[in-house]
Amino acid sequence: MIVVRSALYALYLLVTLIPWALLAVLFSVFVRGAPMYWLCVGWLRAAVWGAKAICGVRYRVQGLEHLPSAADSNAAVLLAPKHQSTWETFAFPTLMPHPLAYVFKRELLWIPFFGWAIGRMDMIHIDRSRRSAAWGKVLEQGKRLMSHGNWVIMFPEGTRAARGTQGEYKSGAARLAVTTGTPIVPIAVTSARCWPRRSWLLRPGLIEVSIGRPIAVQGRRHDDLMREVEAWIEAEMRRLDPEAYASAVDALPA
Fold it and tell me: Does domain 2-245 sit in CATH 3.30.460?
């Protein structure tokens, strides 16, 4: 049954994505900015709803009260979430009250329809093979977007981690937060419980999303800041999904 439902969900994503992406590309010829963003978020809402309706993937969010409200357009934050699956890349723009700018590898732009749509949005796509140039682009565009009320979202581990494991936390998000004076928000998410990385099979269940309090960055070193973000996320992951870490041998960061 999981295979059948997952296949139906994959078909649902394809059937809805193609016309939505074509509409977004056409719409972007005339209108950009927030209207274009929220148009694309409409498909993400449909994707998250489809995961629930077809595959039984439910979610629960705690900590939204820690974030600035939609009415506070000048309060920028930098989101630093755990990354376990595709689900959170779909879900976060539907959960947040402000437009998000993802920092992502430029190869995603080559995906038909999906890449065409995100290429027309205010996102930060980087060439990972050119690290110094990539950082300069992240800093320049991050400053611009946050000055316009957008929030930047960066996955500190860089890539998806398997359930119950911990990737290497890179310093890019903390460096951007410190350089721009923007509070950084750690987020734990147990999405691999229902949608494991490198798998198209979705299992019914509950995904927990826990949003931490913004961490002030004034006077902080980026490496110390990232260690604090890492410690909070990994401790929260073990609280939310203890069975995944029951036999884990990795230790919490000091």
Answer: no
